[in-house]
# Entry
Amino acid sequence: MKNYVRLLSYIKPYMRRLAEAIVCIIIAAGANLYLPWIIKDMIDKVLAEKDMQMLNVISVGIVVTFFIRGIFYYGQSYLVSFVGQRVIIDVRDVLFRKFQRLPLSYFDRHQTGEIMSYIANDVAALQNALVDRLIELVTESSIFIGSLVMMVMLDWKLSLLTLITVPLVGQAMKVFGRKLKSSGTVIQERLADITATMQESIAAIRVVKSFGREDYEIERFHRQNELNFRAEMKNNQLMSLLTPTVEFLAALAVTVIVWFGGYEVVNGVITAGALVAFLTYAVNLANPVKRISRVYGAIQKAMAGADRVFAIMDMPETIVNRPGAKDLPPVRGEVVFDDVTFAYEEGNDALSQVSFSAAPGQMIAFVGPSGAGKSTIANLIPRFYEVSSGAIRIDGYDVRDVTMESLRGQIGIVPQETMLFSATVRENIRYGRLDATEEEILQAAKDANAHEFIMALPEGYETKIGERGLNLSGGQRQRIAIARAILKDPRILILDEATSALDTESEKVVQAALDRLMIGRTSFVIAHRLSTVFNADQIYVIEGGRIHEHGTHEALLAAGGLYSNLYHIQFSKTSG
Ligand SMILES: Nc1ncnc2c1ncn2[C@@H]1O[C@H](COP(=O)(O)OP(=O)(O)O)[C@@H](O)[C@H]1O
Ligand SMILES: [Mg+2]
# Structure
């Protein structure tokens, strides 16, 4: 109920149009209500009294009624759709904005497919509830209320009898409504599972094929598909039970009315026409009850979606600008980790008491086994995650005290695998700085050793990159990523295994571009191959989330510790 009110708050900006729509609906419904009066006059005046003039009036009345109904029917459909669609667009926008703002830790815990399902399926369910069902709800309610009023005017005793059965029908609706809501939740969850499985299998189709796991995937998907079938059938079963039950109750009511009304006509209390009109209204009454109960079901189902959508909207944005946070002024690039401890999940520290400092322009390298915590260190500098204790300072500013935009605006990151957008090469480079000029884009591409291969693409800078940049090699994608970073011109640079996925040949080209990029910037280089970090100002060997040892290449070799072990393993392998 709370969420329904909340959903309605999205309608608020469109109140005027909604009010106009409701007026249209009421007038169109009112035209419907006039028809039984025509029948009454037809029976009592035209048929019983042979009134020819009345027949003419009635004929004109029918034509006019249907004409008016048509016009307002158009108005109601148009206006309600307008409001409904606007609300959905707004909800979708808010939801998307929320996803942009949620901390990375949310995305660590949820699959892409699951998130897509929220935006696609849940919002679609809301759309259905708001647009189609809203028209039905208002139409049927006005016909219901209007019919009741007419019935009381015709015969209040008979009306009272009718009313006794209505609460019975209402009670049945309530019980079913509750069941429908819970089965609606199950359906949406199953659908989300299916979308997620499908998305995952298709995204990882190469892995599936390389392991020959097609049948395994087919079986896994089939099982989820079956679960969805069962959930759907359960929901449909409830729906199919709901309609006849409500209808039967309505039929009982009609029988009571027919008997008592006939008794009154026989005794001359009401006219025959009045009874026929009354019965028409009573049937009118049954129809809305039936439809409203269906609308009720659809709304319950949509509310299950709304619950999930709002739950996401209410997720805490754990990493936000502090109240009164100031912009980080252009920095020189001094980066200090002061006794930093951090855990992705409570009680399981990924970093423990890490302290180091990088002077402006220095090159700092992190080496160590995989899972040691190197990327985690890199993730903390732009404040993708929040430290558990200790502090990270840039030029003396705690990263938590400055605005995220100004912080991240001065940090460039080249990861191991770059995600390129399905847009042109130019647009992908321009992502680094949206207001970059054409010359700046070209220069950045040249500095990244990318210009030449880009010019060789079918449409040069206008070439569209496939969904995940599939038609470019790893080395080419990295060079576009480097061009993007060059364009951003950050003071602080993070290269997280930027060349690890490349073959030796493209590594050389990319490394040359990276070396150029690092000049004059504070650079953090995470590398597998030690050869890329020989000339670092400081090398930190990370193991188990701690700094194991540190120093220059020569000093570490001389110390004969973990670094010199790694060095000897790598170089006896390559030389021997
Ligand atoms: N997003 C994450 N959520 C939870 N745990 C993570 C996440 N990323 C990394 N970890 C864990 O933190 C530890 C350090 O990982 P990482 O910094 O990626 O290592 P490295 O980059 O040195 O290979 C590992 O135990 C890893 O499993
Ligand atoms: Mg890593």
